[in-house]
Amino acid sequence: MSDLAPLIDRLRRDDPDRLAMALLAPAAARSRLVTLYALNAELARTALSARDPMVAEIRVQWWVDRLQAFADGTPPPHELLTPLWAAWGPEAAGMTGLAEARRHDAARKPFTDPLEVVAYADATGGALMQLAARAAGAEGPAVLAQGRAAALTAWLRARPALQALGLGLARPDAAALRALADSAARAFAVARAARREVPAAAAPVLFAGAAPRAVLAAAQEGRDPAPPSEFRRRAALLRLALTGQWWV
Fold first, then answer.
1. Which neighbouring-strand residues pair with 111?
2. Torsion region of 108: left, alpha or beta (phi above 0 gives left; psi -120 to 50 gives alpha)
3. What DSSP designation does 170 have?
4. Sign of CA dihedral 104, 98, 69, 60
5. Which string of DSSP letters, residue by residue, matches 33-83?
6. pTM listed for this prediction
7. What does the domain layout of the chain look like in residue ranges?
8. Three-class DSSP category at 246
9. How far is residue 180's CA from residue 127's CA, in Å, rounded to a whole number?
10. pLDDT in tens, the chain (248 residues)
11. Is 175 helix (H, G, I), strand (E, B) or coil?
12. Distance separating alpha carbons of residues 181 and 216, to the nearest angstrom
C-alpha cells in the first residue's frame, strides 16, 4: 500500500478511527477502504473550507462533477482521484451522493427537526458505511441499520461543535436529542438482531466508534456526551480487533 501512503497519512491525522477500520479489514479491501475514507474526509473538509456558502457550494460541486465523470473513464491525474480510480474504477461514480449530501454543510443551515438529521445521517455516514461494507463483502438490513445508527451517534457526539458552525439543530432542545437517540437505538437493535447475516470479514467497517451507548444515554437525558478519552477510543478499537464484535 505504499502508493496510498499520502492518503494514509491524511487519515491518520483527520480520521484515525476509519484508518484503523481500513487496516483491520481484509487485505483485499484495504485500498478501496483507504481511498473511500480519504474521499469522505476530503468532502467533509471541502464543505467547510469557506465561510461564504456560495464559495463552499462551488467547491462541493467540483467534487460532484469529478465523481460523476468516473462513469465516463479515467480521471486526469490527481492526488486522490487517481488512487480512487485505481481502487474502484467506474464504481466510484456511485459515490457522487456522498458529495451531494455535503451541500447542506456548505450552506451552513441548521436542521429544523430530527427527521432532517436522520436523512442527512443516512446520506453521509450511512451511505459511507454501505460502500465500505460492500467493499468488504457485506450488505443487507444489518448494514443499513448499523450505518444509520453509527452516523446518528457520530452526529450526536459532534453536535456541540456543529452547533457552533450553524450546522446543528435550529431548536436544540431535549426532546429533539431524545428523538435522535431513540432513532439510533432502534437502528442499533435492528443491526444487532441481523448480525448473523454479516460475514466476519466485514466487522471492522461496521464499527460505531467508542462508547456509543454512553453517547445515546446522554442524548436521551437531553445533554451532550463527554468526548471519549484516547484510552477509551483505543480500547474500543482493540476490542473490535480481538473479538470482531461490531454490534451495539
1. 169
2. left
3. S
4. positive
5. HHHHHHHHHHHHHHHTS-SSHHHHHHHHHHHHHHHHGGGGSPPPS-TTHHH
6. 0.97
7. 1-106, 109-248
8. coil
9. 18
10. 658 999 999 999 999 999 999 999 999 999 999 999 999 999 999 999 999 999 999 999 999 999 999 999 999 899 999 999 999 999 999 999 999 999 999 999 999 999 999 999 999 999 999 999 999 999 999 999 999 999 999 999 999 999 999 999 999 999 999 999 999 999 999 999 999 999 999 999 999 999 999 999 999 999 999 999 999 999 999 999 999 999 99
11. helix
12. 5
CA dist., res. 136 & res. 130, Å (int): 10
Nine-digit cell string for 118 = 436522520
Cell digits for 220? 436521551
Q: What does the longest C-alpha to C-alpha distance in the chain come to?
A: 50
Q: Which amino acid appears at position 114 of this protein?
A: P
Q: Do 119 and 180 meet the contact criterion of CB atoms below 8 Å apart?
A: no
Report residue 23 as a C-alpha cell.
487496516
Q: How far from the centroid of its chain's Cα atoms is residue 171's Cα? A: 24
Cell of 198: 454479516
